[in-house]
Amino acid sequence: MKLYRYPHQSVSKHTKNHPELQAINDQPQAYWINDWSPATKLIVEEILERSSAKDEVPVFVLYMIPDRDNASHSKGGAKNYKQYKDAVQDFFKMHHRNSIAIFEPDAFALNFSQKRTEVFTEIFHSIRPEKVKVFLDIGHPHWHTSEHVKTMLEKIDIENLAGISINVSNFVSSRECEKYGNKICKKVGAKYTFIVDTSRNGNGSTDDDQWCNPSGRSLGKKPSIIAKRFSRHYANLWIKLPGESDGQCNGGPKAGEFWTEYALDLVRKSKR
């Protein structure tokens, strides 16, 4: 199936003055849900309606967990776990047809507490797998070993999940990510698949594994659903929006703000 391209991607307003950025704007990218305000819900409803009419697959990122990013560059999230559960379960009750949802980047790998274990299990019970494919983010190959990830996954009920997402907002090469994903899915069960964020991993990671606006990176493989028979690799997606800053580091603006110079460099490095 074809991925849905949201027409108001963060890069779109910059293409008039910088035509090179059309290389980013042409590609379907994820829509990040950072809160569950009425305005956000309206946008999600619009995306679901338009993608359904085109018979295309929308990609969402749920990023609302309390104490998000351990109060680092992308701090924020819901005020408490009750508010959080209500918001996420409301999202899952919407008129999904064939959505993909990336579940809470970094939350599992960064701080998987007992409370989060309980909350995730409760939320996952409300998923309708036939309507929305949910992929729990588990970090990247340079973070936790596949055996450690397997051990952590055994603490929650993942029956309704489609699989795991790898490398969200990071730069690890596709080759490493695919090897890692296959290894984990083989350990946890034959039905599970994985997604790789290829938005900025064309040149792989830096030698010292910088994650915050490292220089010299490039766009990776174009987003597409693979979903081949007997393959655990479900899709390559642009989950991180290329050009949006990782935080105030290496000269970048606040996390999530569009950084034109960095976006242009990603495009230019991709042409070499």
Essential attributes:
272 residues; alpha/beta; TIM Barrel; 8 strands; 30% helix; 12% strand; globular
Task: Describe the protein's architecture and organization.
This protein is 30% helix and 12% strand. By secondary structure, it is α/β, with parallel strands linked by helices. It has one domain (12-270): TIM Barrel (Alpha-Beta Barrel). The protein has an eight-stranded mixed beta sheet. Helix 6 (146-153) packs across helix 7. The two termini are 30 Å apart. The model has no long low-confidence stretch (mean pLDDT 94).
Largest sheet: 8 strands, mixed
User: How many domains?
Assistant: 1
If you consult CATH, what is the topology?
Answer: TIM Barrel
Tell me what the CATH architecture is.
Answer: Alpha-Beta Barrel
Which class in CATH terms? Alpha Beta
Strand arrangement in the largest pleated sheet: 1-2-3-4-5-6-8-7
Q: In which range does the helix fraction lie?
A: 25-40%
The gist of it:
The protein has 272 residues and is α/β, with parallel strands linked by helices.
